[in-house]
Amino acid sequence: MMDLDKIAEIFAGGSYEIANVQRLVIQPKSILRGFKTVQYGFLFIVRGEAKMHVNGTAYDLLPGTVVHAAPGMQMDSRVIGQSELEYFIVFYRWNKHGNDTAAVELDTHFKLEPGANPRLLEALIMIQQKARATGGIGKLHVKELFLGIMHQVLVGCKSREEGRSPGQKIIEEAIAYISGHYMEPLTLGELAELHDMSPKQFSYFFHKYTGYRPIDYVIHYRMERARELLKAGSYPISDIAVSVGYANPLYFSRMFKKKFGVSPSAYREQEESHKDVGQS
To answer: Which listed residue, of 52, 93, 147, 246, carries a Cα 20 to 30 Å from 7's Cα?
Structure first.
């Protein structure tokens, strides 16, 4: 398998355009006789099983499998089992410029195993619907969708390599988001929607991997930041409240006392007395 970071670098900075996107359903036990590819492309399996050969290399295709091929490659495939084979193909054109090392890297076939992911299927449906967009803005949207798909695929592969489930990765992303936006109004519904989950599903996974309910974690994070500010200097309590997301300083003080057992002003006095003892 190609290096995941290398693939990411190629598509993050390369010059290419999405040529076409197809969604195909193949009947059980169908056999696709040998043919030669004419474009670069990624094949995304969403349902069923098949056996494919690319230039003599055998690939087992299952839901969540992604296969890349370049122009001029010999391919054949056979659907296995009683289920239909459903897949998407994203064809792209690489705009080669002189000594293009990225193009050389892509002149090969390889398989990626990000695992089945409902968010990826939704993105594939969307790009297939938008693939024929015209005009600069339309084409930009298609490329944006493609980059989102590749990001999900590569993150899924990396998570499997590291033994992390896709759910765990999503929660890690949610924690990172909270750490950058804790001073803003945050609700369970908004956090769940941001990560393409229902509130119930998001709350379940968040608690599973962190031990906190989402909003309880937001409160915990805000209180820890407030405690750091109280230790750092003599900022007004009202300013600290606003900086961690509370417009009402009285409500902030109640939440702080519930968390640490003392009010913000009492906590500050404790810290100052500890400093004095340490200096004497």
So the answer is: 52
Q: What is the pLDDT of residue 83?
A: 83
* ∠ Cα 90 139 111 (to 5°): 20
38-65 average pLDDT score: 93
Question: What per-residue confidence (pLDDT) applies to 16?
Answer: 92
Distance, CA of 109 to CA of 99 (rounded, Å): 20
The one-letter code for the residue type at 160 is R
Give the C-alpha separation, 253 to 257, whole Å: 6
Which of 119, 36, 47 is CA-nearest to residue 87? Answer: 47
pLDDT value at 100 more than 80 = no
Taking all residues of the chain, what is their mean pLDDT, rounded to a whole number? Answer: 89
Identify the burial level of 118 via C-beta atoms within 10 angstroms of its C-beta, where 0-12 means exposed, 13-18 middle and 19 or more buried: exposed
Under DSSP, is residue 259 helix (H, G, I), strand (E, B) or coil? helix
Helix-helix angle 214-232:166-181, to 10 degrees: 40
The DSSP annotation for 13-24 comes to H--EEEEEEEEE
Q: Give yes or no for a contact between 42 and 48, defined as CB atoms under 8 angstroms apart.
A: no
CA distance linking residue 82 with residue 113, whole number of Å: 23
**Predicted local distance difference test score (pLDDT) of residue 142:** 94
